[in-house]
User: What shape does this take?
Amino acid sequence: MLAEMGNDRASRMAYDRGTLEIMAPVLPHEYWNRLIERLIFVLGEELNLEIFPTGSTTLKRKDLRRAAEPDSSYYIRNEARVRNKIAIDMRNDPPSDLVVEVDLTSSSLDRFQIYASLGVPELCCYDEGVLYIYQLQQGEYVQCNNSPTFAQLPLIEIPPFLEESQRIGVMGMTRNFRHWVREQI
Assistant: This one.
C-alpha cells in the first residue's frame, strides 16, 4: 500500500500486526509540528549536537509486522551512523533517537507499542499546550520531565514558547527560546 501511494502524499499511516490507521494532518497540526522542529534545531545549535531530520519517514520492520509514520523523527545520538544514507533499514540501522507526535485530532498512544517494538528511545507528544516526554525503559515508555536527548534542559517548559508564537510570531518566539536555552546552559 505504501509503494502504491508513494511518498508524495499528505496522509500518514501506522500498521500494527493487521490494523492499519490512516491520518491526514490539518494546518494547526502542521503548524505545531514545524514549531517544535524549529525548537529542536535551536537546541541542536546551542548544545552543539548534529541532527539528521527524517521527518515522517516510515519506520518499519516487516519481521515484526509493525510500521508507523511519525509527525517528525530525528537522529541525534546516532546521527553519524545514518548521515549519508538514502534509506534506513531498521533491521540493521538504529531507530530514530527522537520521535515527535502532535496529538490535536487523534491520540498517538496507540502507536506507542509500535515505537517501543522498533526501539525508539524517546517520544515527545504535544497535546493542547502540554508537552509529554517519554523514555523507553525495558520495552515500555515511562513519562519523564527531562528529555534523555537534551537531559540538561527541562523541555516540559517548551509549551509557553509555542503559545507565544501566536502573539509575537515565529521569529520572535525563536529568539526568546534561544535566549532561554542559553540561560539554562
